[in-house]
């Protein structure tokens, strides 16, 4: 997969995401054959006016806003999902350099801003490091 500035990215997938992607790829292939389309886009529009046009960042943001409305969740945006991913990885003791690689950062300082220290991680670290916190 290619990210910002055309840089190649590795995207780790859990088993649920892999299954969903495999199902999407099968459906994608069927649609391309049925509609006689050619596109390199992993996700694209299927409409009479824009068959095969890649889904852009703004469209993803609109879809996320719509999904949060339907599910009655707080409004969110795609960038918030990056923050959540970094925070979950950090909470589960993932090294900052690995998080930087997943997010596509060249500079660990940028990643440190993304991966805001959670209260749980802060308290766990405090308890492990401070002699009077144990017991």
Order of helices and strands: HHHHHH
- Beta-strand residue fraction: under 5%
What is the CA-CA span between the terminal residues? Answer: 48 Å
Please give the count of helices.
Answer: 6
Tertiary shape: elongated
Describe what this molecule looks like in 3D:
The protein is mostly helical and 135 residues long. It has a domain at 75-135. It is 55% helix and 0% strand. The protein has six helices and no strands. The protein has helices spanning 15-34, 57-70, 78-91, 96-103, 108-114, 119-129. The protein is elongated, with a radius of gyration of 20 Å. The termini are far apart. The model has no long low-confidence stretch (mean pLDDT 85).
Please give the structural blueprint.
Blueprint (H helix, E strand, L loop, with lengths): L14 H20 L22 H14 L7 H14 L4 H8 L4 H7 L4 H11 L6
Helix pairs in contact: 4-5
Quick recap of the structure?
The protein is mostly helical and 135 residues long. The chain is built from 6 helices and no strands.
Key features of this structure:
single chain, 135 residues, mainly alpha, 6 helices, elongated
